[in-house]
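Because discrete structure vocabularies remain unfamiliar, it helps to consider an illustrative case, giving the amino acid sequence and backbone structure tokens:
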Amino acid sequence: MKILLDIYHLPQFNFLKNTILNFAPDEIDIFCIDRGKLYPVIKHELPGYNVTCIGDYRHNKGMVSMIFRIILPRLLRLYRIIDKSKYSFILTANYQANFIGRLKRIPNMAFNDDPRSIIIPILRFSTDEVYLPPFGKRYHGVKVFNALKEWAYLSPTYFSADQSSLKEYDLQPRRYLFIREVSTKTSNYLSQQEGIILSIADKLPREWNVVLSLENKDNAALYPDHWIILREPVKDIHSLMYYSSAVISSGDSMAREGALLGVPSIYAGIRDMPANEILIRRGRLWKIPPSDVVTKINWINEHPDYINNQDAFRQELLEEWDDITQLILQKVKLKKNNS
């Protein structure tokens, strides 16, 4: 009997990739959705594993279409596919496959980091066990893992930066900014203005070298022509982030990644997330309005101790936080043995 693992967007794949690699391809089935570069990235990075794509995010034109053209049809297909005689356990960072697992009495578990008022009740309703990072607020019926989920792949246990990754782009360590611009056509960013980074692009001095990770490539021509725009799949995007002088992002996930890599990181989006607060308190992440980004970058450049102490900061986290991959593997083994 196999494990079923359901992935809903790219940060979830990064979170669960090291867990997946602990299983042989014939021990696990991976489900995902056609969302951005998620499906091709999984196929590229996990050759030989069985990957099934269910649902298409191109139908997402707002909340109504997301529910009736993506979520409900996907739940129906999952119900038809998931078979109790085939799967012994379901693991996600979401809720959809868990909900089907609960209906079919298959043990299941979810790791999440987004305790919005609508998310927690859904997770608790659909999932046998829900885990969140150590936020200040505790939620009834929800367990805690002592780390942020990005630590599952950015901990020094699993990630070592490779300076040779800079050669492809003719970059020098600490002499460029790494910038991420997310699309606002997802449920997380529907209320965020489109093109936050674009709105301040002309404010960044031309002499600043910029590497841009652009989610919506249709807008590429609108950005300064001297910026380097990455083409996915990028071989080692986290090394590019690690060796940057600062990370700026209109999305929260990559802002946290930058901070966990020990790089001074700026989140210029609108979401107020407890996961961000953990790193804000640690002094590696700042949530500021776009109009203040240039001023903050100048301040960071005047305080080189942040970069000088990069590895010491990561070592502190390594000593304090859980190895989430090992925690997940222990939980899966326990659940399978008890099923």
